Amino acid sequence: MASEKTLALLRSRLCNRNFVHSAFKSSPDSNYSKLKFLIANSISEACNNSVLLLGPRGCGKSAVVDLVLEDLKAEHPDMITVVRLNGLLHSDDNCALKEIARQLCSELQLLFSKAASSDDNSQFMIDMLRECGLAHKTVIFVLDEFDLFTQGKQRLLYSLLDAMQTLTSQSVVIGVSCRLDADQLLEKRVRSRFSHRKLLCAPPTSEDTVRLLEHLLYLPKDESFPSSYIRDFNSAVQKILGDKRFKEILNSLSNVEGTISNLLRFLFRVVSYLDLESGLLSLENFKTALPCTQRQPKLDALLDVSILELYMLVCMNRLEIKEQNSYNFSSIMKEYKSIQDAYKTSDNYAHNVCLRAFEHLLERELIGFSDPRSRSLSIEFRPVKLLLSPRELHQGLKSNSSCPAILQKLLDHESYK
Amino acid sequence: MANDDDDIPKTPNKRTTRSSSSSLSSPPKPPAGTLTLVPSDGLTFSRTSISLENLLSSLPGRRAQILDVLRLIGPVDSPMLPILLYGGASTGKTSTILKIFHHLNRPFIYVSCRSCYNPRILFESVLNQLAFHRKSESNGYSSARRCERASEFVNLLRDSLVQVLNDLGKGKKKAGCGKTTYLVFDNVEVIRSWDGNASVLSLLFRINDILRIPEVGFVYISSSTPEGYYLSTGSTEPVTVYFPDYTVEDLHAIFMRNQENPKLYSSFLSVVLKPFYRITRRLDELLIALEPLFQKYCEPLTDPRLVPDEPTKRRLFDNLQPHLLSALNETFKVPSWSSLDAAKEGISNKKLNSRRIGGKEASNELDFHMSVSAKYLLLSAFLASRNPATLDAALFDSTGGSNNRRRKRKSSQTSIDQKDAMAQEILMKGPGTFPLERLLAIFQCIASVAEDVFDEEPQEEGIMSGGGKVGLMSDVLLQLSTLCNANFLCKSGSCPLEGSTRYRSTVDEEMALKVARSINFPLSKYIYRR
Predict the structure, then answer these.
(1) Cα(B281)–Cα(A304) distance, integer angstroms
(2) CB–CB of B240/B83 below 8 Å?
(3) How far is CA B259 from the centre of its chain?
(4) How far apart are CA B160 and CA B149, in angstroms?
(5) Mean pLDDT in chain B?
(6) Fewer CB in a 10 Å sphere around the end CB: N or C, chain B?
(7) How far is CA A216 from CA A9, A211, A268, in A?
(8) Residue B282 CB neighbours (<10 A)
(9) How far apart are CA B206 and CA B530, in angstroms?
(10) A346-385 tens-digit pLDDT
(11) Are A197 and A50 in contact (CB under 8 A)?
(12) Nearest-CA residue of chain B relative to A102?
């Protein structure tokens, strides 16, 4: 029973980004503190402000904004109105204005008219900004995927930032983007109205990672669990965190991708392996979860292809080695026939069977058309290319136990002379 | 094989769309009356769930994947990160996830991006299912909400999810299946070929981040690898589960399910499965290929329930051997409708068999009908595509192309490496294109030759030759568009200099020879060999 509760608790922690990033709340030089200071200032001094949060994906930029806004809302009740836009959804100006009007209406309990034109909406936004300014309320615009708003005419950004130039308004624009050059994408008229404050988010350092792991994995000391169980669980976690092999696992994970979201995905898998009998995490859980995150789909696919499909791949590889810069199914078939004539293997199949195998390879995306536009030609004549490197093919053949020896020889003979 | 799985409770609202999964593992189709039935308690399969053992045994070879997915989905009402199931075609991804939800008995909706072929239909399909809306005659087959933009979709989706979660929360005590609702998106790889695919794909993969409702789980199913989505989604990668192709043992276990005579079928499989496995590992194709072979295998037996002993097995194998080789080379040929019907009715069984065995005899017949003039048109298109245009005059002069001497001399003049280069070029380029005028000229030539040769001419041809130019033109143009629609010819853009549409014939030589034989036309005389 306690173990099931632990599983549920850990899963909900890992899926809740605000909880994850609250680990860094306390440190004074974190982005959280900086952003909070900035916005709290503009609220108390009733001024306009704008800031960009930049950093690679999965570093918790939006989570930091969420945490800050949550806290400020608690500290200054009824003073803050938040409007959230996402570049994926609202990069179109009219659509964005409509969404702003809709969110303002629902926040301030006004009636939203669906039929309003884009001009009406834009006027409404400016009016509302003035009204809110007069009432000493701050409107905070959070623009997620900020770089997508800079495509097109940037009318939305201009009207937003232009409205902020007036003394009466009181608003903050927070742009969040994974492009580090997001401020360079702005037009001149927009850039001049933008305060060039930028906060950079970076992947966590190794000390931060350890702190994050402790924050995520230790059970809280409260009454909901039996105290002996908490002691056992936490000491098990502590033992794992101190283990040398665990450090290796963590290193191999962060060597590929060191972002927090990658770590969370890994931990999510680890927690899914939690043994419900004992209810304790073990190093084994981490070990079994690691290979799942480090799959090589191309090699997996090579293990899955049938013998005939392997023949096709080897033929293509031979053609590439012969420096035929462009080839199609007919030339592959010619190569295949010549192999069959020379070695008289049992795998001599008819044209249409080979064509089907060829189509399977296309479906698996191991090969692809080199010119995706020429649709009018039939498949046999469209030029194709191998999407595998010779090394991958070599490795794939080696690990495929059902691969005939002759095929291996054909490949070795050609490529490693 | 198609009607197995009878021990598993039937589900009234079958959401599967793929024919392979329905023929394989999902429950049989419900009677017509219950097809529109929506379960009263929401989005679950039915009130009876299948047990874990049943689940594992109904999907042989997928044990590890099922347990993995179950672990990731987790206990009732616990939040989850989005997961992506990927693996080649016909590896049981869709049927696994559907059966898992049948086992868990939790609310979910299933959308296939293949049947919902543009963003609007995809969005509306999700919203319809959440609103328990069904398109029917009474509502004019319209959706519950009209929704074209992604921004509207997210707002509407959030509203309807909140609604559904509230409703489920109220009925939670009696159901015991939790209120977490799962959204399953199948065939995600298809989206990459849509217009403006980037935004839809990244929306789909980031929708969990955008919505931020912990009670919603997202499952994506894709036949292409996660690498294929890197470009458009950044690092918001779901947790992945890989479905490898079935091994020989798995396939054996799958084929052995619910066989009437397991011993007999097992001995059949031991002979047949290995060679076919070398060609393809896809279950759906193997199913099609093995079914007629098994009938063949059983033919000498009088009693289908007989348990075969060693000599019988050998006898059966000897009987099957000649068919095996031809079947291997004919794999994946989907039988035409006429032969399928014949097989179903059980009439003319012998005739059918003779066609299957021979292979060569069968190939003499065309399995489609076409008017004689269309056949001539097809042949002239074939000739126009294969022969160089400069030779037309020589081939189709007044004597009707019987001038073999000149062609021979010409080919002997060309040097060998030039020949090779040409052959290479033909291999690469495929059939050539030709303008309409050339096609019509060749058509008239060969049609007139045919008139000379045969006294008894079909009616259509008589009209063509006798009815003057105008009648012929309109008739032929009509046939031409028919051939284009049937994909025997394809339009290949217009020539930049002339501006007229050019055509290309897509039939191969074997097919053209068959057509020629059916109208007794000496095609080989006209093909230019290098």
Answers:
(1) 8
(2) yes
(3) 26
(4) 16
(5) 74
(6) C
(7) 10, 9, 11
(8) 22
(9) 58
(10) 888 888 889 889 999 998 889 988 877 766 677 788 888 8
(11) yes
(12) B155
Collapsed DSSP state (helix, strand, coil) of residue A140: strand
Q: Where are the alpha helices (DSSP H) in A257-306?
A: 260-272, 283-293, 297-304
Instruction: Determine, for residues B86 and A347 on separate chains, whether the beta-carbon distance falls below 8 Å.
Output: no
**Contact status, residue A138 vs residue A43, Cβ threshold 8 Å:** yes
pLDDT of B216-264, one tens digit each? 999 999 998 888 787 655 556 889 999 999 999 999 999 988 888 888 8
Query: Once rounded to an integer, what is the mean pLDDT over residues A283-308?
Result: 89
- Contact present, A171 and A141 (Cβ < 8 Å): yes
Written as six digits, the tokens of A179 are: 């492009």
Q: Give me the pLDDT at residue B493, please.
A: 67
Q: What is the pLDDT of residues B295-311, one digit of tens each?
A: 888 888 877 677 778 88
Alpha carbon of A12: minimum distance to chain B alpha carbons (Å):
6
With a cut of 50, say whether residue A122 has pLDDT above it.
yes
Whether residue B159 lies within 8 A of chain A, CB to CB, comes out as: no
Name residue A367's beta-bridge partners.
Answer: A386
The residue with tokens 């059980």 is B346
CATH architecture designation of domain B368-397+429-449+472-529: Orthogonal Bundle (1.10)
Contact B214 A16 (CB under 8 A): yes
Write the ipTM.
0.92
Q: Which residue type does A203 have?
A: P
Name A171's bridge partners. A139
8 Å CB contact between A363 and B343: no
**Taking Cα atoms as reference points, which of A340, A341, A332, A296 lies closest to residue A313?**
A332
- Range B114-133 average pLDDT: 90
Sorted by sequence, the CB contacts under 8 Å of residue B467 that are 6+ apart come out as: none
- Mean pLDDT computed over every residue of chain A: 88
Tokens representing B218 are 């997202």
Residue B214 to residue A273, Cβ atoms within 8 A: no
Chain A residue closest to B245 (CA)? Answer: A304
- The SS3 call for residue B25 is coil
Burial of A6 from C-beta contacts in 10 A (0-12 / 13-18 / 19+): buried
3-class secondary-structure state, position B384 = helix
pLDDT per residue as tens digits for the range B333-381: 554 444 444 444 443 333 333 333 333 334 456 667 888 888 888 888 8
Across the interface, of B225, B278, B331, the residue whose CB is closest to A301 is B225
Cβ–Cβ below 8 Å for A99 and B278: no
What distances in angstroms separate CA B285 from CA A135, A360, B19, B24, B211, one per listed residue? 71, 11, 12, 12, 41
- How is residue A347 written in tokens? 């795998």
Q: Would the CB atoms of A295 and B240 count as touching at under 8 Å? A: yes
Among B431, B410, B403, CA closest to B530: B410
**pLDDT tens digits for range B452-473:** 655 444 444 444 444 444 445 6
Mean pLDDT for B174-199 is 82
Span B25-69, pLDDT tens digits: 333 333 333 333 333 345 666 667 788 898 998 888 899 999 999
The span from the CA of A331 to the CA of B420, in Å, is 13
Q: Which domains does chain A have, with CATH numbers?
A: 2-10+205-295 (no CATH), 46-200 (3.40.50.300), 299-416 (1.10.10.10)
| pLDDT of residue B451 exceeding 70 | no
Amino acid A297: pLDDT: 85
Tokens at A283, concatenated: 């190093």
DSSP string, B310-373: HHHHHHHHHHHHHHHHHHHHTTT-PPPHHHHHHHHHTTTHHHHHHHHHHSHHHHTS-SS---HH
Q: Where are the domains of chain B?
A: 52-243, 248-336, 368-397+429-449+472-529
Residue whose pair of structure tokens reads 């403006």 in the numeric block: B196
Residue A99 banded pLDDT, cuts 50, 70, 90:
very high
Q: Which CATH architecture has domain B52-243?
A: 3-Layer(aba) Sandwich (3.40)
